[in-house]
Amino acid sequence: MFENPILPRGMRPDRGLAPGGARPERVTVMQGQALVSNDPNVEFSTVLGSCVALCLFDPEARLGGMNHFLLAEPPANSSVSTVDEYYGTYLMELLVNQMLAKGARKAHLRAHLYGGANVNRNMMRIGSANAEFARDFVAREGIELLRSDLGGGNARRVDFRPASGQVRCRTVEDRFAPPVQPTTRPAKATGDVELF
Amino acid sequence: MTTTTRILTVDDSPSMRALLNHALTTQGFDVAQAEDGMAALDWLALNEVDVVITDINMPRLDGFGLIERLREGSRHRDRPILVLTTESSEEKKARARAAGATGWIVKPFDPAKLVAAVRRVAH
Lengths: 196, 123
Hints:
The structure holds two protein chains of two kinds. By secondary structure, chain A is of the alpha+beta class.
Protein backbone atom coordinates (compact mmCIF):
# COMPACT_ATOMS: atom_id res chain seq x y z
CA MET A 1 0.00 0.00 0.00
CA PHE A 2 1.41 3.37 -0.98
CA GLU A 3 1.20 6.07 1.61
CA ASN A 4 2.31 9.61 2.14
CA PRO A 5 1.98 11.02 -1.35
CA ILE A 6 3.95 14.20 -1.91
CA LEU A 7 0.85 16.32 -2.26
CA PRO A 8 -0.33 19.51 -0.61
CA ARG A 9 -2.91 19.00 2.10
CA GLY A 10 -6.34 18.39 0.61
CA MET A 11 -5.16 17.13 -2.77
CA ARG A 12 -5.82 13.43 -3.40
CA PRO A 13 -3.47 11.24 -5.41
CA ASP A 14 -4.63 9.35 -8.45
CA ARG A 15 -5.37 5.69 -7.78
CA GLY A 16 -4.92 2.87 -10.25
CA LEU A 17 -1.97 4.61 -11.77
CA ALA A 18 -1.16 2.14 -14.45
CA PRO A 19 -3.84 2.24 -17.19
CA GLY A 20 -5.91 -0.93 -17.37
CA GLY A 21 -4.60 -2.07 -14.02
CA ALA A 22 -1.27 -3.06 -15.50
CA ARG A 23 1.70 -3.29 -13.17
CA PRO A 24 3.90 -0.23 -13.37
CA GLU A 25 7.26 -0.39 -15.07
CA ARG A 26 9.79 -0.46 -12.26
CA VAL A 27 12.92 1.56 -12.93
CA THR A 28 15.80 1.14 -10.50
CA VAL A 29 17.57 4.36 -9.55
CA MET A 30 21.22 3.46 -9.13
CA GLN A 31 23.74 5.28 -6.98
CA GLY A 32 24.80 8.45 -8.78
CA GLN A 33 21.66 8.62 -10.95
CA ALA A 34 18.91 11.24 -11.05
CA LEU A 35 15.76 10.26 -12.98
CA VAL A 36 12.64 12.31 -13.77
CA SER A 37 9.35 11.20 -15.32
CA ASN A 38 5.69 12.14 -15.74
CA ASP A 39 4.72 8.67 -16.96
CA PRO A 40 1.96 7.12 -14.80
CA ASN A 41 3.24 3.67 -15.78
CA VAL A 42 6.65 4.28 -14.21
CA GLU A 43 7.69 3.50 -10.66
CA PHE A 44 11.16 4.48 -9.48
CA SER A 45 12.66 2.07 -6.99
CA THR A 46 15.86 2.00 -4.97
CA VAL A 47 17.40 0.32 -1.92
CA LEU A 48 19.28 2.54 0.49
CA GLY A 49 21.72 1.70 3.23
CA SER A 50 23.95 4.64 4.05
CA CYS A 51 22.92 6.27 0.76
CA VAL A 52 20.30 9.01 0.63
CA ALA A 53 17.50 9.52 -1.91
CA LEU A 54 15.74 12.82 -2.56
CA CYS A 55 12.26 12.51 -4.10
CA LEU A 56 10.87 15.69 -5.68
CA PHE A 57 7.34 16.17 -6.95
CA ASP A 58 5.49 19.05 -8.60
CA PRO A 59 1.79 18.41 -7.90
CA GLU A 60 0.67 20.85 -10.60
CA ALA A 61 2.92 19.51 -13.36
CA ARG A 62 2.34 15.93 -12.11
CA LEU A 63 6.02 15.28 -12.49
CA GLY A 64 8.49 13.64 -10.15
CA GLY A 65 12.15 12.79 -9.83
CA MET A 66 14.44 10.78 -7.61
CA ASN A 67 18.17 10.66 -7.05
CA HIS A 68 20.40 8.31 -5.05
CA PHE A 69 23.74 9.42 -3.69
CA LEU A 70 26.44 8.87 -1.11
CA LEU A 71 28.87 11.74 -0.98
CA ALA A 72 32.53 11.20 -0.26
CA GLU A 73 34.78 13.15 2.02
CA PRO A 74 35.53 16.60 0.62
CA PRO A 75 38.74 17.23 -1.34
CA ALA A 76 41.77 17.71 0.89
CA ASN A 77 41.99 21.42 0.06
CA SER A 78 38.41 22.10 1.20
CA SER A 79 37.21 22.95 4.67
CA VAL A 80 33.51 23.28 3.89
CA SER A 81 32.11 20.21 5.65
CA THR A 82 32.48 16.50 6.26
CA VAL A 83 31.14 15.65 2.79
CA ASP A 84 31.97 17.02 -0.66
CA GLU A 85 29.32 19.74 -0.73
CA TYR A 86 30.54 21.07 -4.07
CA TYR A 87 29.84 17.73 -5.74
CA GLY A 88 26.69 17.10 -3.69
CA THR A 89 25.17 20.45 -4.58
CA TYR A 90 25.95 19.72 -8.22
CA LEU A 91 24.18 16.34 -8.04
CA MET A 92 21.13 17.94 -6.42
CA GLU A 93 21.11 20.72 -9.01
CA LEU A 94 21.08 18.11 -11.79
CA LEU A 95 17.84 16.66 -10.38
CA VAL A 96 16.25 20.08 -9.88
CA ASN A 97 17.27 21.20 -13.39
CA GLN A 98 15.82 18.03 -14.93
CA MET A 99 12.55 18.75 -13.13
CA LEU A 100 12.48 22.36 -14.33
CA ALA A 101 13.38 21.36 -17.90
CA LYS A 102 10.34 19.06 -18.01
CA GLY A 103 7.97 21.75 -16.83
CA ALA A 104 8.15 21.82 -13.04
CA ARG A 105 8.36 25.11 -11.16
CA LYS A 106 10.73 25.40 -8.27
CA ALA A 107 8.15 27.07 -6.04
CA HIS A 108 5.87 24.06 -6.51
CA LEU A 109 8.41 21.41 -5.57
CA ARG A 110 7.72 19.14 -2.61
CA ALA A 111 10.34 16.80 -1.16
CA HIS A 112 10.75 13.52 0.68
CA LEU A 113 14.12 12.32 1.99
CA TYR A 114 15.07 8.72 2.79
CA GLY A 115 18.16 6.76 3.76
CA GLY A 116 21.34 7.71 5.58
CA ALA A 117 21.17 4.64 7.84
CA ASN A 118 24.08 3.54 9.96
CA VAL A 119 24.12 0.00 8.60
CA ASN A 120 27.89 -0.22 8.58
CA ARG A 121 29.67 0.86 11.72
CA ASN A 122 32.66 2.01 9.68
CA MET A 123 30.45 4.24 7.53
CA MET A 124 28.31 5.64 10.32
CA ARG A 125 29.72 9.10 10.10
CA ILE A 126 29.46 9.39 6.32
CA GLY A 127 25.83 8.16 6.32
CA SER A 128 24.80 10.69 8.95
CA ALA A 129 26.75 13.43 7.18
CA ASN A 130 24.96 12.67 3.91
CA ALA A 131 21.56 12.84 5.62
CA GLU A 132 22.51 16.15 7.18
CA PHE A 133 23.70 17.51 3.84
CA ALA A 134 20.42 16.52 2.17
CA ARG A 135 18.30 18.11 4.90
CA ASP A 136 20.35 21.30 4.73
CA PHE A 137 20.11 21.44 0.94
CA VAL A 138 16.31 21.12 0.92
CA ALA A 139 16.00 23.75 3.66
CA ARG A 140 18.38 26.21 1.97
CA GLU A 141 16.56 25.86 -1.34
CA GLY A 142 13.24 26.63 0.32
CA ILE A 143 11.72 23.34 -0.86
CA GLU A 144 8.94 22.10 1.41
CA LEU A 145 10.00 18.85 3.07
CA LEU A 146 6.85 16.81 3.58
CA ARG A 147 8.46 13.70 5.03
CA SER A 148 11.89 12.43 5.95
CA ASP A 149 12.88 8.98 7.13
CA LEU A 150 16.61 9.28 7.73
CA GLY A 151 19.16 7.62 9.96
CA GLY A 152 18.50 4.61 12.13
CA GLY A 153 20.14 1.25 11.69
CA ASN A 154 18.13 -0.41 8.92
CA ALA A 155 18.30 -0.37 5.15
CA ARG A 156 15.25 0.95 3.31
CA ARG A 157 13.51 0.19 0.06
CA VAL A 158 11.85 3.24 -1.52
CA ASP A 159 9.27 3.04 -4.33
CA PHE A 160 8.19 6.33 -5.88
CA ARG A 161 5.58 6.92 -8.55
CA PRO A 162 6.71 10.16 -10.18
CA ALA A 163 3.45 11.05 -11.92
CA SER A 164 1.39 10.91 -8.71
CA GLY A 165 3.97 11.61 -6.02
CA GLN A 166 3.11 8.47 -4.09
CA VAL A 167 5.96 7.06 -2.04
CA ARG A 168 6.35 3.78 -0.19
CA CYS A 169 9.29 3.34 2.18
CA ARG A 170 9.91 0.01 3.93
CA THR A 171 12.78 -1.24 6.02
CA VAL A 172 14.51 -4.25 4.52
CA GLU A 173 17.24 -6.59 5.62
CA ASP A 174 20.65 -5.04 5.31
CA ARG A 175 21.72 -7.73 2.85
CA PHE A 176 19.41 -6.11 0.27
CA ALA A 177 21.48 -2.94 0.46
CA PRO A 178 24.77 -4.02 -1.09
CA PRO A 179 27.91 -2.39 0.31
CA VAL A 180 28.69 0.78 -1.59
CA GLN A 181 31.49 3.23 -1.70
CA PRO A 182 30.87 6.97 -1.61
CA THR A 183 30.62 8.56 -5.03
CA THR A 184 33.67 10.65 -5.72
CA ARG A 185 33.81 13.23 -8.45
CA PRO A 186 34.40 11.70 -11.87
CA ALA A 187 37.86 12.48 -13.16
CA LYS A 188 36.39 14.78 -15.81
CA ALA A 189 34.28 16.72 -13.29
CA THR A 190 37.04 18.92 -12.00
CA GLY A 191 35.60 22.34 -12.62
CA ASP A 192 37.74 23.01 -15.66
CA VAL A 193 37.93 26.61 -16.79
CA GLU A 194 37.95 27.70 -20.43
CA LEU A 195 38.62 31.35 -21.11
CA PHE A 196 37.44 32.57 -24.52
CA MET B 1 47.52 50.66 -2.98
CA THR B 2 45.40 47.60 -3.65
CA THR B 3 41.63 47.47 -3.98
CA THR B 4 39.35 44.56 -3.29
CA THR B 5 37.99 42.79 -6.36
CA ARG B 6 34.19 42.94 -6.36
CA ILE B 7 32.26 39.99 -7.75
CA LEU B 8 28.56 39.53 -8.47
CA THR B 9 27.44 35.89 -8.37
CA VAL B 10 24.17 35.10 -10.18
CA ASP B 11 22.54 31.74 -9.44
CA ASP B 12 18.99 30.72 -8.54
CA SER B 13 20.23 28.11 -6.08
CA PRO B 14 20.88 29.48 -2.56
CA SER B 15 23.10 26.45 -1.93
CA MET B 16 25.28 27.26 -4.92
CA ARG B 17 25.42 30.94 -3.98
CA ALA B 18 26.51 29.95 -0.47
CA LEU B 19 29.32 27.75 -1.85
CA LEU B 20 30.46 30.53 -4.18
CA ASN B 21 30.33 33.06 -1.38
CA HIS B 22 32.44 30.80 0.83
CA ALA B 23 34.96 30.00 -1.91
CA LEU B 24 35.42 33.66 -2.88
CA THR B 25 35.19 35.57 0.40
CA THR B 26 37.77 33.30 2.03
CA GLN B 27 40.16 34.42 -0.71
CA GLY B 28 39.54 38.09 0.02
CA PHE B 29 36.99 38.94 -2.66
CA ASP B 30 34.02 41.19 -2.00
CA VAL B 31 30.95 39.20 -3.08
CA ALA B 32 27.40 40.26 -3.89
CA GLN B 33 24.65 37.82 -4.85
CA ALA B 34 21.67 37.87 -7.23
CA GLU B 35 19.08 35.11 -7.64
CA ASP B 36 18.52 35.47 -11.40
CA GLY B 37 19.35 37.65 -14.40
CA MET B 38 16.70 40.27 -13.64
CA ALA B 39 17.91 40.70 -10.06
CA ALA B 40 21.45 40.99 -11.42
CA LEU B 41 20.47 43.77 -13.85
CA ASP B 42 18.70 45.64 -11.04
CA TRP B 43 21.78 45.35 -8.82
CA LEU B 44 24.20 46.32 -11.59
CA ALA B 45 22.15 49.42 -12.38
CA LEU B 46 23.11 50.82 -9.01
CA ASN B 47 26.46 49.20 -8.20
CA GLU B 48 29.90 48.75 -9.70
CA VAL B 49 31.52 45.34 -10.04
CA ASP B 50 34.76 43.92 -11.41
CA VAL B 51 33.61 40.41 -12.42
CA VAL B 52 30.23 38.73 -12.95
CA ILE B 53 29.87 34.96 -12.42
CA THR B 54 26.55 33.66 -13.75
CA ASP B 55 24.61 30.42 -14.01
CA ILE B 56 22.72 29.66 -17.25
CA ASN B 57 19.43 28.02 -16.18
CA MET B 58 17.52 30.58 -14.13
CA PRO B 59 13.93 31.84 -14.00
CA ARG B 60 12.83 35.25 -15.39
CA LEU B 61 16.10 36.02 -17.20
CA ASP B 62 18.65 33.27 -17.83
CA GLY B 63 22.41 33.59 -18.16
CA PHE B 64 22.36 34.03 -21.93
CA GLY B 65 19.85 36.86 -21.62
CA LEU B 66 21.86 38.49 -18.86
CA ILE B 67 25.06 38.47 -20.94
CA GLU B 68 23.26 39.85 -23.99
CA ARG B 69 21.66 42.66 -21.97
CA LEU B 70 24.97 43.62 -20.36
CA ARG B 71 26.78 43.68 -23.71
CA GLU B 72 24.08 45.86 -25.30
CA GLY B 73 25.03 48.91 -23.27
CA SER B 74 28.39 50.65 -23.04
CA ARG B 75 28.78 50.40 -19.25
CA HIS B 76 29.31 46.65 -19.06
CA ARG B 77 30.53 46.00 -22.59
CA ASP B 78 34.00 44.99 -21.38
CA ARG B 79 33.05 43.59 -17.97
CA PRO B 80 34.46 40.05 -17.48
CA ILE B 81 31.57 37.58 -17.30
CA LEU B 82 32.29 33.97 -16.34
CA VAL B 83 29.59 31.36 -16.94
CA LEU B 84 29.36 28.68 -14.22
CA THR B 85 27.00 25.92 -15.24
CA THR B 86 25.97 22.26 -15.16
CA GLU B 87 25.55 22.47 -18.94
CA SER B 88 28.11 20.47 -20.86
CA SER B 89 26.93 20.90 -24.45
CA GLU B 90 29.26 22.50 -26.96
CA GLU B 91 26.27 24.26 -28.53
CA LYS B 92 25.47 26.12 -25.32
CA LYS B 93 29.11 26.93 -24.74
CA ALA B 94 29.29 28.40 -28.26
CA ARG B 95 26.10 30.37 -27.60
CA ALA B 96 27.58 31.85 -24.42
CA ARG B 97 30.75 32.78 -26.26
CA ALA B 98 28.78 34.41 -29.08
CA ALA B 99 26.72 36.37 -26.54
CA GLY B 100 29.94 37.82 -25.12
CA ALA B 101 30.91 35.60 -22.18
CA THR B 102 34.54 35.81 -21.09
CA GLY B 103 34.86 32.21 -19.89
CA TRP B 104 33.08 28.91 -19.27
CA ILE B 105 33.35 26.89 -16.05
CA VAL B 106 31.65 23.54 -15.57
CA LYS B 107 30.14 22.54 -12.22
CA PRO B 108 31.01 21.04 -9.83
CA PHE B 109 33.50 23.84 -9.63
CA ASP B 110 36.90 23.60 -8.02
CA PRO B 111 37.36 26.59 -5.69
CA ALA B 112 41.06 27.00 -6.50
CA LYS B 113 40.45 26.95 -10.27
CA LEU B 114 37.56 29.38 -9.93
CA VAL B 115 39.64 31.81 -7.91
CA ALA B 116 42.50 31.57 -10.40
CA ALA B 117 40.11 32.32 -13.28
CA VAL B 118 38.64 35.32 -11.47
CA ARG B 119 42.09 36.74 -10.75
CA ARG B 120 43.10 36.24 -14.36
CA VAL B 121 40.12 38.04 -15.91
CA ALA B 122 39.81 40.76 -13.29
CA HIS B 123 42.91 42.61 -14.51
